[in-house]
Input
Amino acid sequence: MTFPHPAKFRLVVAGPTESGEADFLDVDGPAVIDVPDVANGAFYWAVEGGHSKENFGRPPASVQLAGPNGSTFGVNSFPARSAGKDIDINKIDPTMDVGHDGDPAMHASDTIDYEVVISGKVDLELPGGKVRTLVPGDLLVMAGVPHAWRNPYDEDCVYIVVTVGFNSKEEL
Output
């Protein structure tokens, strides 16, 4: 099965109208990132500062992982043969902690990420050279640990991602 570019998925939102009636809501398109030969993606939804019926989110203005008490929802892709490509991750999302294990592609964030591979495959590398190859149907929970993505394969890897920001330290 072939999937569209991450920015071409259709987002359907069911929520309350201004009068409180349940309806399908018209929303803007996703925030898109495209770094040729490295990664591309689209974040379709984001919640900032806590979840509630009154604060259920909106399309984000930019591609960034969830902040404290927030969440994001999107589709990402690693192009075929994008393994080991150097990229300054700080230019993509300045909230990421980069450069672990002497590898500029190794990064971490203050989020818990839920990911589902829907096509292709990708290698997930942890510090110390620990590697798992993820394939369609694999579910990943990423608990804020340093990691790097590598796709040395002949097919793009497309996956769904939800990021949930850790609670802010002030609230603990």
